[in-house]
Amino acid sequence: ALPAVDNLQSLVGTPELYLNRLAERYDEGLVEDIPKFLGETWSMAVFHDRFADFRLALKAELMEDEGFRAIVEDLHARAEGGEGLPPLSTLRRKVKAPAREVVGRAVVAFLEANKAQLPLYLTPSMEVARDMEHKDLVHSPGPQRPPRAERA
């Protein structure tokens, strides 16, 4: 089902990465119909009525981390100085494990708190996730994807 116009309007100001790399996928020709793409099941959490509050709370918690705060301050300084932003891969390397763990815990807590409205997301407390952990399916490396440059 396509998202309603009100839902689409709620995305204004949402970082593109929250939208499953929408701009990149569109530029690569992987997304031809944006409303259809945003109507896929992966996007349910983004349209949840508490998602904006979740984002604000997560940002506030991340800003308590000195390393994360330094990254944000550096990005603001670059933007104010007219410098270009570093590649996303560089930024990802700068974000240290404590900040990544905060994000992981917050996402799981959000999904579990809202599981009645977001039943398609697998969380650690679900029986099937525990079964996967028991069978070591969660930690197995699985098939390896080639680097982005090698993909067509």
Describe the fold and architecture.
The protein has 152 residues and is mainly alpha-helical. It has helices spanning 5-9, 22-27, 34-38, 51-62, 66-80, 88-94, 97-113, 127-134. The longest helix has 17 residues, at 97-113. It is globular.
Whole-angstrom Rg? 18 Å
Strand content: under 5%
Cα(first) to Cα(last) distance is 29 Å
**Biggest pleated-sheet summary:** none
Percent range for helical residues?
Answer: 40-55%
The averaged pLDDT comes out at 83
N to C succession of SSEs: HHHHHHHH
Uncertain spans, ≥5 residues at pLDDT below 50? Answer: none
Shape verdict = globular
Structural class: mainly alpha
Oligomer: single chain
How many strands appear in the DSSP assignment? 0
Number of helices: 8
What's the quick description here?
The protein is mainly alpha-helical and 152 residues long. The protein has helices spanning 5-9, 22-27, 34-38, 51-62, 66-80, 88-94, 97-113, 127-134.
List keywords for this structure.
152 residues, mainly alpha, 8 helices, globular
Question: Topology, please?
Answer:
Layout lengths: L4 H5 L12 H6 L6 H5 L12 H12 L3 H15 L7 H7 L2 H17 L13 H8 L18
